[in-house]
Amino acid sequence: MASGAALAIEKFDRSRHFGILVAMDILAAWLKHLQFERNLSAHSLRAYTVDLEHFCDFLTAQDSNPISADRELIREYAASLHDKMQPSSVARRLSALRTFYKYLCRTGRLETNPIDGLRGPRQPKTLPKMLSIDEMLALLCKPLDGLDGDPLLHTRDMAILELLYGAGLRVSECTGLDWVHVRLDERLVRVRGKGRKTRIVPFGTKAVTALVAWRAARQELLDRCSADERADAEKALFLNWRGSRLSARSVARMLEKRCLLAGLHRCVNPHALRHSFATHLLDAGSDIREIQELLGHARLSSTQRYTHASIAQLQRTYDRAHPRAHLADASVMHRSAKT
């Protein structure tokens, strides 16, 4: 299988933008730097390539190229993004350019960085989407009935949900797991996360039960696998209905269906189960440093966002249960009645 950098280079080489770069080795070297020195995944490499290609689209229309582009032209590009994209998408595009131009300066291809001092848009602070404990129980305890379809897929889905919530995994980490990464007797899973960093994460007895049931049933799906994908499928922890390795998009579709079947008033993506895992641990008194280790966050600031979600939940609990909160409401109602 070709590497992520090679695939990205091949894609860019087929486009008309590649000719505006000073030399082919610039892009090739940058992508290899991202892949081997920064350990970015193939997905991230594709995203960086798309971002740079979009930038080159703009420069081509301006009769310029990434090497000769000055600060004012890059500011004009940033301004054009604000009219079409959400602040988070604009910030991602500018982040890709910062990475690219820092590399060009570090390797001596540019003397000054034209993007220095260009700040990204202010992004609104939002709480991570998550499910309450009651919603999680409704999702995980939905009994199998005729509407659920294939009992074999139901067994697989329950194992996926229990592992996503029980270990706080990213969906890409879950679908990338092989059976060799799971130790059922020790209730541990070895996960390769962002930056190809490996961590060991525990999971609960409910997940063990679900995984044991899935292991006994998966051979039926494996028998459907084509010869070309058989080698990878035999290693994979989770399989799709054709018997090959399950994709992250398939997990997202499955979760949408499960939310509807469980009677939830909203559908969530798989990352919400990771958010729920972290917030529920924090609400139960876990130390934030321990949660950081379980989630595999490189920076504590990434984990601290869950403290805000936890505080919001505490405030709602206070307003619902504290006697003084009820007394305040009663006082307001009494004054309203007088008037």
What does this structure look like?
- With about 350 residues, the protein is mainly alpha-helical.
- Among the domains are: about 5-105; about 135-265, Intergrase catalytic core (hpI Integrase, Chain A), CATH 1.10.443.10.
- The protein has 15 helices and three strands.
- A three-stranded antiparallel beta sheet has the order 1-2-3.
- A hairpin with a 5-residue loop joins strand 2 (about 190) and strand 3 (about 200).
- Helix 1 runs parallel beside helix 3 (about 40-60) and helix 13 (about 290-295) crosses helix 14.
- The longest helix has 22 residues, at about 300-320.
Write the layout of secondary structure elements.
Blueprint: H1 4-14, H2 24-37, H3 42-61, H4 71-82, H5 87-106, H6 133-140, H7 151-167, H8 171-175, E1 182-183, E2 188-192, E3 198-202, H9 205-222, H10 230-235, H11 248-261, H12 271-283, H13 288-295, H14 300-321, H15 323-338
Antiparallel strand pairs: 1-2, 2-3
CATH architecture classification name of the domain at 133-266? Orthogonal Bundle
Radius of gyration: 25 Å
Strand order of the largest sheet: 1-2-3
> Approximately how much helix is present in the residues?
55-70%
Secondary-structure element series: HHHHHHHHEEEHHHHHHH
Q: Beta-strand percentage?
A: under 5%
Structural class assignment:
mainly alpha
Q: What is the top-level CATH class of the domain at 133-266?
A: Mainly Alpha
